[in-house]
């Protein structure tokens, strides 16, 4: 556990082996200049510190690392009102016996639902972790294996629904200049209260684990999900810059789960 990690009281259904946190925890191995690009300190607009952040966040950097721009994003506390984790009891569900992430209220198209939190690592991550997301284009990743929030419960859509209704996107809060990974509702999708939030991990994620996804079915997935009670991850770089506070088109420019690291 890194020194700055503050462990909070977890919600019902939380895995007791995992630390519950409400902000990213940065590894001391992350170079200071890279961290300042993603997580600058609070600064007044027009101050020297704010100017320094803008100098680091060049147009090229933002193009490579940000999908969504805006300044009216909800706080982490407000985000938690959007969701709840629930044990899955439907025997036809491929993750029956495990947990899933569900809407606690109606969620609108393109809405930011919840940040994806964990340990921010640099040039490497735990090869045994199934909870790693690529974080931009600077060799950063977020690992929610040992610490995270409710976002780590988001399951893959295969065998559950016709397609994903949410996606992972990097977003920039223009009021703080901080970059985060968020779960966003897909374009043209409204999620009703009680519906499960589903992403796509990508077929390569499953193939690296010896699971054939050619028929869009994961019959072998049930056991592993029941053992871990959490979602998994596959790497994808994010390359497209958005000019408004909206996710990219459905099925495009979405973070996917990282597969286990291969030499």
Automatic annotation (TrEMBL):
<feature type="compositionally biased region" description="Low complexity">
    <location>
        <begin position="214"/>
        <end position="233"/>
    </location>
</feature>
<feature type="compositionally biased region" description="Low complexity">
    <location>
        <begin position="245"/>
        <end position="254"/>
    </location>
</feature>
<dbReference type="InterPro" id="IPR046341">
    <property type="entry name" value="SET_dom_sf"/>
</dbReference>
<dbReference type="Pfam" id="PF00856">
    <property type="entry name" value="SET"/>
</dbReference>
<protein>
    <recommendedName>
        <fullName>SET domain-containing protein</fullName>
    </recommendedName>
</protein>
<feature type="region of interest" description="Disordered">
    <location>
        <begin position="210"/>
        <end position="263"/>
    </location>
</feature>
<dbReference type="InterPro" id="IPR001214">
    <property type="entry name" value="SET_dom"/>
</dbReference>
<feature type="domain" description="SET">
    <location>
        <begin position="81"/>
        <end position="202"/>
    </location>
</feature>
């Amino acid at each position: 556990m890194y020194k700055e990690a503050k462990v909070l009281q977890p919600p019902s259904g939380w895995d007791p082996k995992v630390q519950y946190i409400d902000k990213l925890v940065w590894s001391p191995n992350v170079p200071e200049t890279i961290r300042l690009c993603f997580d600058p300190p609070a600064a007044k607009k027009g101050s020297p510190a704010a100017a320094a952040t803008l100098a680091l966040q060049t147009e090229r950097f933002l193009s490579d690392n940000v999908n969504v721009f805006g300044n009216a994003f909800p706080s982490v506390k407000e985000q938690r009102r959007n969701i709840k984790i629930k044990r899955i009891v439907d025997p036809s569900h491929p993750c029956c016996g495990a947990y899933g992430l569900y809407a606690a209220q109606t969620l609108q198209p393109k809405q930011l639902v919840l940040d994806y939190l964990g340990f921010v690592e640099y040039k490497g991550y735990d090869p045994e972790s199934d909870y790693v997301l690529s974080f931009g284009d600077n060799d950063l990743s977020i690992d929610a294996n040992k610490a995270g929030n409710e976002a780590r419960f988001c399951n893959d859509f295969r065998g559950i629904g016709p397609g994903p209704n949410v996606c992972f996107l990097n977003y920039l809060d223009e009021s703080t200049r901080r970059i985060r990974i968020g779960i966003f509702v897909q374009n043209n999708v409204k999620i009703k209260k009680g519906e499960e939030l589903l992403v796509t991990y990508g077929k390569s994620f499953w193939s690296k684990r010896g699971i054939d996804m050619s028929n869009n079915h994961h019959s072998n997935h049930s056991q592993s999900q029941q053992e871990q009670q959490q979602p998994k991850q596959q790497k994808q770089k994010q390359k497209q810059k958005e000019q408004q506070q909206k996710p990219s088109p459905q099925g495009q420019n979405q973070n996917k789960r990282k597969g286990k690291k291969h030499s």
